[in-house]
Design goal:
alpha+beta, homodimer, 6% strand, four-stranded mixed sheet, Glutaredoxin, 202 residues, Glutathione S-transferase Yfyf (Class Pi), Chain A, domain 2
């Protein structure tokens, strides 16, 4: 088994932190996006989307999509539970993880892709759309700050996959135009809490 | 238990088809987006995102996000399985469902939101971004057409939640600028197959 990985990728980091929380270690092969390795035919045969991470099984089966990989390991190694322990809790953590993806991660990525010089010539950039999403990130951070007024973690009293998604999004946002404003004190308290875990730099 | 629902919404339709496939019937309360009911304080207290569907439990608990709701019912009513039956199969169906969301549903929605007169004055429109996403939809439909050359359904031999996501996306795409081109014969065969199920108009 091995993981096709990407050093600074947001999604690969989600899986690395998840595996570290579970105490699971898997060999990684790092794909060099700067050299276009992820768009080479050999890699597109592994994942036609050209994205990382991908889990490769010993029989040659490939599993893409971060949350699909995390869910696979959650079933095999249920401790510590990161997707919840009861039917309702699992559904609620799924809800919070999706809100973190759709309301936080997605617009933070859009700000990066559409407003940052890094992507010039690599992907179509529409700065006006980047600005629309930048306003959305600010609005959603303010909402999340209110949500975190009365609980330590995104989905409640325990650290879950929803925290992993959100912390990786904000780590990317820090250097790409979506830094958490200083007055969002609940959000900053939460970010300091989750990024001080021993797994945060996995 | 009841469902806050929206007649023509893509996501509410996903949940309605899912429940129909399971043979589950839940009372619906339709929220009138045209009258702005989803942005009223009473509804924002139910879902701060202002989106449908939301499942309301008898004790007043709310569960938002279509796939969270579907997953909740999958656990309680495993037959027929729509998320897979083994650990690997569940992970693969999760992968395919996410690909359908990220590579098909999301750009189809973007084409609708950014290029259609319906949204003028309702949401910020960036036509240039709509055109970027329109090119992406075409490219992704061609990819999906190739994938469907050797299997009947999105994730393999059985109808799953990944088909539900994709069929609802293409139903929306039909009238909003993302119709499946005639020459993508595998994709058209699949679309005819899934939309001829008795549950397709749920």
């Amino acid at each position: 088994m091995k993981l096709y990985d990407l050093k600074n990728g947001l999604n690969p980091r989600r899986v690395r932190i998840f595996l570290a929380e579970k105490g699971i270690s898997i060999p990684s092969e790092f794909v060099d996006m700067m050299k276009g390795e992820n768009k080479a035919q050999t890699y597109l045969a592994i994942n036609p989307m050209g994205l990382m991470p991908v889990l490769e099984f010993d029989d040659g089966t490939h599993l893409a999509e971060s949350i699909a990989i995390c869910r696979y390991f959650e079933e095999l190694h249920p401790q510590p539970p990161l997707f919840g322990t009861t039917t309702l809790e699992r559904a609620q953590i799924e809800m919070w993880n999706r809100r973190m993806e759709l309301e936080i991660q997605l617009p933070i990525q859009d700000v990066f892709v559409h407003l940052n010089a890094f992507w010039a010539g690599r992907r179509p950039q529409v700065p006006e759309y980047g600005r629309v999403q930048q306003a959305r990130v600010l609005e959603r951070m303010a909402w999340l700050n209110r949500e975190l007024a009365d609980r330590p973690y995104i989905a409640g009293d325990h650290y879950t996959v929803a925290d992993i998604t959100a912390q990786c999004a904000f780590v990317m946002g820090k250097g790409t135009g979506s830094k958490i404003p200083d007055d969002l004190t609940n959000l900053i308290r939460w970010f300091d809490l989750v990024t001080s875990r021993p797994t945060a730099r996995a």
